[in-house]
Amino acid sequence: HKGGYDHFMIKEIHEQPRIIRESNSTSIHSGVKDAELSGILSLDPPPSILILACGTSYHAGLIAKYLVEELLGLSVNVELASEFNYHRHRTPEALAIVITQSGETADALLAMRRLREHGTKLLAITNVPGCTASRLADETWYTGAGPEISVAATKSFTAQLKVIYRLLLSCSRLERRDFDRLTLALRLLPSAIQGVLDNQLEIRSCAKYLASCSGVIFIGRGLNYPIALEGALKLKEVAYIPSQGYAAGELKHGPLALVSKTTPVVAVLGRDTTHDAMLTTLREIKVRGAPLIAIAPKGDDGLDGLADYIIPRPEVDNLVSPMLNAVVLQLLAYYTALELGCPIDMPRNLAKSVTVE
Ligand code: F6R
To answer: What is the interface pTM, i.e. ipTM, of the complex?
Structure first.
């Protein structure tokens, strides 16, 4: 049932174009507004929104915050469920979106029970039909990625993002222009992801190099900052290499001290307003002699002579670039772990769903 692949992780990585394409044809093309509770997002005055999640799902939450604030003009708080449970919640939000692949993560469920007591409406985004989170929620949006066997979340993450985009599209607050832009971007995305999957040469040679490193730093800005966090999580999880993700602008506030000739930096770039600031940060890193790996849209001239490895990826609308960049980083982690002979689908000390606090 690994479908000819060596591991579930790589099989699940390859399922992503299909999963994204299928959801495009059902919900987005028909323009169905399948949200009821999410109609809260359209209320006037704007509702207060909280997003809760753990691990990889939390990274999807960070991207959701950025998108909701940018495209809907609403402000959003995102918290790790495990932290949320340990402080007083003074002004309960009208709506909480809980993102959990398994729907059984103890910290997320506890947070849901607390919020229910405060009368907050709960929207769950989950991959498992009938899970506990869906039973606690007022409304559930399924990610439809199918069972994810590999402990490291891959296809469930991009499927979560896809649901978040659908949520935005269902909201009457979204301007027509952005609706059209996002719809088109999502329609073009599956073949761009396929393009990454069909072109793994640079990723594999870069993975060979990373396998020799004892620490890696990931950086991104804006929409791709959470992707830097996700890339670092994937690498430490499956390849056991200490990896840290940072907002690029934060490097100079401390982490730059870690940068040296033996600490490579993986930079996740988009073609957006953060691009020039990213290049400035890359130059600062270069001066310190650190090997630079850049993941960027094809034909980014700014990187010539700057990056040691360039992993070019297909051009997509920057709004959906996190999904594409995530796939690149999943592959990078996978091949690095493969190089090191790690038990990729079942990393030590980890369980697929964390049902204890
Ligand atoms: C990382 C990973 C974990 C989960 C986290 C939350 O690859 O799989 O970080 O994302 O345990 O799990 P769910 O989404 O099931 O609540």
So the answer is: 0.99
